[in-house]
């Protein structure tokens, strides 16, 4: 039994089990629905069970599928953790790496990483996804992501981190006539509504709110945005203000305000699972990211 079950069958089983939908699973696996259906048919024959049955617009696992899922998950997790030789040449490695990152760090770090890896490790393919801080540990453990680029405060216990840089916030507007004096006082600043950027959890509160509260001020938040890219566009088309990372500026259509006091910066980090600490391929990618940051600082 199971002599004809291969790794790609187990990966297909896991995605169908998690997503409860053949279409969604095929998209996640970057394969066609027809190819995935063929794999499912093969697994049904090998396991002597239907494994998944139709329900509404998706599928649900059979009792047997529920029983074997922990074993499939453990087998795939073990395979992911098999180390490569310590002298593995990045030029010769063929591997797909999934990176979860904020849109800010995708713009200032990941784009440069892609350019460098295209030369130093051309066989590495990258999948980029937006950060989901609350899901990081689970996704790392399940092998769904390999590296994360985010802020220190959003990294849960159980992951290792390398510090990248401390980023400073700058306050921006699109209306040059909004303030008549410079530097702008916090009293005047908090008379205007803001856009806050919360890539992980939608909320009408940003990192500057605690800082303002300690100063004795409250601000009105009109929009909670999922990305800094969207925040910039909203500010350009309204009289709202926003705090943006300094590395995203200057930006056409936005004016940086000089404030009497600015909020504290945040530590950007590279996070990864402990099982990857000694892996030479991941070490090469981490070192490349560190080099990118160091080169920027040196300029």
From TrEMBL:
Organism: Reinekea thalattae
Family in the record: Belongs to the LysR transcriptional regulatory family.
Domain of life (superkingdom): Bacteria
Domain HTH lysR-type, first and last residues per copy: 5-62
Taxonomic lineage: Bacteria, Pseudomonadati, Pseudomonadota, Gammaproteobacteria, Oceanospirillales
Record protein name field: LysR family transcriptional regulator
Gene3D superfamilies: Periplasmic binding protein-like II, Winged helix-like DNA-binding domain superfamily/Winged helix DNA-binding domain
GO MF entries: DNA binding; DNA-binding transcription factor activity
Keywords assigned by UniProt, alphabetized: DNA-binding, Transcription, Transcription regulation
């Amino acid at each position: 039994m199971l002599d004809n079950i291969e790794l790609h069958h187990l990966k297909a089983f896991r995605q169908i089990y998690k997503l409860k939908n053949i279409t969604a699973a095929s998209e996640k696996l970057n394969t066609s629905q027809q190819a995935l259906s063929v794999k499912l048919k093969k697994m049904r024959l090998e396991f002597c069970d239907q494994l998944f049955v139709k329900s509404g617009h998706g599928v649900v696992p059979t009792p047997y599928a529920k029983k074997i899922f922990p074993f499939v998950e453990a087998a795939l997790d073990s395979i992911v953790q098999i180390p490569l030789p310590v002298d593995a040449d990045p030029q010769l490695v063929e591997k797909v790496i999934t990176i979860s990152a904020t849109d800010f760090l995708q713009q200032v770090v990941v784009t440069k990483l892609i350019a460098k890896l295209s030369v130093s490790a051309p066989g590495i393919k990258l999948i980029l996804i937006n950060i989901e801080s609350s899901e990081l540990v689970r996704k790392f453990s399940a092998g769904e992501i390999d590296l994360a680029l985010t802020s220190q405060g959003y990294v849960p216990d159980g992951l290792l981190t390398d510090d990248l840089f401390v980023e400073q916030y700058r306050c921006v507007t699109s209306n040059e006539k909004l303030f008549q004096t410079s530097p702008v006082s916090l009293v005047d600043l908090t008379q205007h509504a803001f856009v806050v950027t919360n890539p992980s959890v939608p909320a009408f509160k940003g990192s500057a709110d605690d800082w303002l509260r300690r100063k004795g001020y409250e601000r009105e938040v009109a929009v909670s945005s999922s990305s800094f890219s969207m925040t910039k566009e909203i500010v350009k088309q309204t009289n709202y203000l926003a705090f943006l990372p300094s590395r995203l500026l200057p930006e056409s259509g936005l004016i940086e305000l000089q404030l009497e006091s600015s909020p504290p910066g945040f530590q950007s980090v590279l996070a990864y699972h402990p099982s990857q600490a000694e892996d030479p391929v991941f070490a090469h990618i981490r070192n490349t990211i560190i080099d990118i940051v160091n080169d920027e600082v040196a300029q």
